[in-house]
Amino acid sequence: MKEVVREKGKTVVVDDARIDRAEALSPDDLMELVGELMVGHARIHRVILEQKKRMTAEETAAELDRIADHLSCVVNDLQECVLKAKMLPARGLLRRVAGVAGKRGDEIGVELEGEDTEVDGDILKELEAPLADWVRKRSAAKKLKLSITNEDNLAVVRAFADGIGLPAEASEPLRAVAERLGGLIGFESHAGERESVRLQLPLTNAMFFGQLVKLHDQLFMLPMSGIEGVAEVRHGELGSSGERQTFRWGDRTLPVFWPHRLLRIPRVASAKESVPLVVAGIGERRFALAVDELYWSQEVRMKSLGDCVGRAQGIAGSTMLAGGKVALIIDMRDLAELVLPERT
Description:
Blueprint: E1 2-7, E2 10-14, H1 16-19, H2 27-54, H3 58-86, E3 87-89, H4 91-103, E4 109-113, E5 118-120, H5 121-136, E6 143-151, E7 154-162, H6 172-180, E8 184-190, E9 194-202, E10 208-215, E11 218-223, E12 227-234, E13 239-241, E14 244-249, E15 252-257, E16 274-282, E17 285-290, E18 293-300, E19 315-320, E20 326-330, H7 332-339
Parallel strand pairs: 4-6, 11-20, 15-17
Antiparallel strand pairs: 1-2, 3-5, 6-7, 7-9, 8-9, 10-11, 10-18, 12-16, 13-14, 14-15, 16-17, 19-20
């Protein structure tokens, strides 16, 4: 740690990893500017497409094309700089959490992995107290292992205890932080023997990777931090439980949810023999989201719907795609509360 004097008679303590990354504007301010540039970039592409459709003013379209390419490079560079300012190595968090075990005076080995993995500093801050609580409650373990890795642009946190196995309820703070950050969590415990926890979280809250899907004629984005997998399933392979369709995913039977009604979108009968499913959820809860088309994943920045639109059930915000198209970002918490109001 390092002390930095801000003004006379007042001192603040700053993490060493942040010293060389300080900017006149905060990372959040800079990221807001990046978002505006991204919108302008998308609008230029839309103009180009309209010009090309009319087959007029070819030279103007070509010049706009060059401008868009240049602007794209600027946006990417600025975005990279801002993200670097927000990202911190997990080293400090892991060592502080491991220190909790050492302070108890017990002979317990703590193995750390992924100290150089860079994660948004705000997310690391959210994780510290829940991870420290997890370690503190397992002081009787023979060995602990903590790791944070970057897997497919997601922060995957693993905690393993050997020689002890507590019920999932003993990890409630970790469950809460997973839900708060829009991620997934999974537990495995063998009483008195071993225990493991896996969290899947966004690397940063400034930008996120999303899965693009289509419902009827509208595009939607699903945050990847809340997705466990995708599948293409024949209609005959879907099961049922009461009036609800179900889908077998590994050793779990998940409810199948068609979000069209919630989002007030017509559900049109399809001649396709199969249906794309996205296995998604929040925290421990899982469900299979049925969509009409499954596209690609990409990095996006979420924008609020604005005061004029207000809060819309099932929608967390929107994002601008290349070509000027808008995709609405689905709120996994809303879907989970509707499909699985109680944890299962």
